[in-house]
Design goal:
It is a single chain. With 299 residues, the chain is mainly alpha-helical. The chain contains 15 helices and four strands. The chain has a single domain, classed as P-loop containing nucleotide triphosphate hydrolases (Rossmann fold), CATH 3.40.50. It has a four-stranded parallel sheet with strand order 2-1-3-4, with helices on both faces. It is globular, with a radius of gyration of 19 Å.
Length: 299
């Protein structure tokens, strides 16, 4: 079939380019958008891809926290089409809570610029839970997930992890943004961010603004095992530089088949919200001092 030939040709081309990238030496980012998850990183990825070189076709390489043993050749292959005309970066929300990722980046790219965006932790942890359920990463109830999935709560320890990043890179290389500012004035938010990482400014269009938090309406999967199996296959393919297969599957509509399609999520109860606010309060208090900003709306 023509479609299969096209896909096979694309894979062959990607592998050839990957080998060329290995021979030419590593292409490494000068900036990282480290999340944490569900703070507008997908929106930022779509914008920054217009003015910087980001991993292609995989959005998140997971190199510094999950695939470091694969080596710089594997990582730099994700930037095989990069030229000197644009800066290289990565949008990697899982790096925020990863001490190994932070230490490896600091050792390998000590001059990297680091950007994090913090969001009301109650809303963010609930959003992250729904995303993980929709993609088949977990199948527990929200209460069970809080106990069994460390990332949910750990990625909400903003002040704790921010201190570690500042300690590793210095205050001049770490910029903190607040999620509410995206909705209040997305253009100013974006201008401040791109000025910091050193890429050209981008004028937001109506289509850009409409893509903010498009995943908030996700539902549970039709079948957990189908979704989980598809996610594992995608991860296996990406680890072996078969990113084009995953990209092609998404283009052909695989996301609609395997992600979501099931029952809607219920809303957080007032009791759950109150309990989470109390759990997050000490960290928010510390963050207010660090940022010199009133975050009482989160409390």
């Amino acid at each position: 079939m023509p479609g299969n030939d096209c896909c096979a040709n694309g894979i062959t081309e990607d592998l050839a380019l990957a080998s060329a990238a290995d021979a030419a030496g590593p292409r490494l980012p000068s900036f990282f958008i480290i999340g944490p998850p569900r703070t507008g990183t997908t929106w930022l990825h779509s914008l920054l891809s217009e003015c910087a070189w980001l991993p292609h076709p995989t959005k998140e390489t997971r190199f510094f926290d999950q695939h470091y043993e694969r080596g710089l050749g594997w990582y730099s292959a994700h930037y095989r089409k990069a030229t000197a005309a644009r800066k290289i970066g990565e949008v990697a929300p899982t790096y925020f809570i990863s001490a190994p990722a932070r230490e490896r980046i600091a050792q390998l790219i000590p001059g990297a610029k680091i950007v994090c965006t913090f969001r009301n932790p109650v809303e963010r942890v609930w959003s992250l839970y729904r995303l993980k359920r929709a993609y088949g990463m977990i199948r527990w109830t929200f209460e069970e997930a809080l106990e069994r999935d460390p990332e949910l709560m750990e990625s909400s320890r903003y002040a704790f992890h921010l201190k570690e990043w500042v300690s590793s890179f210095g205050p001049g290389q770490v910029m903190v943004m607040v999620h509410e500012d995206i909705h209040a004035d997305p253009q100013s938010y974006l201008d401040k961010l791109v000025d910091f990482i050193g890429v050209p400014r981008l004028q937001l269009r109506p289509a850009h603004k409409s893509r903010l938090l498009t995943a908030e309406g996700m539902t549970q999967p039709r079948n957990y095992y189908w979704t989980r199996g598809a996610a594992l296959l995608a991860d296996w393919s990406k680890a072996r530089r078969l990113d084009s297969v995953v990209a092609a599957a998404k283009k052909w509509g695989a996301m609609n088949l395997f992600v979501g399609g099931g029952p809607s999520f219920s809303e957080l109860s007032s009791v759950q919200r109150t309990r989470l606010r109390e759990l997050f309060r000490p960290d928010i208090d510390s963050l207010e001092v660090m940022l010199n900003r009133d975050l009482s709306a989160w409390k």
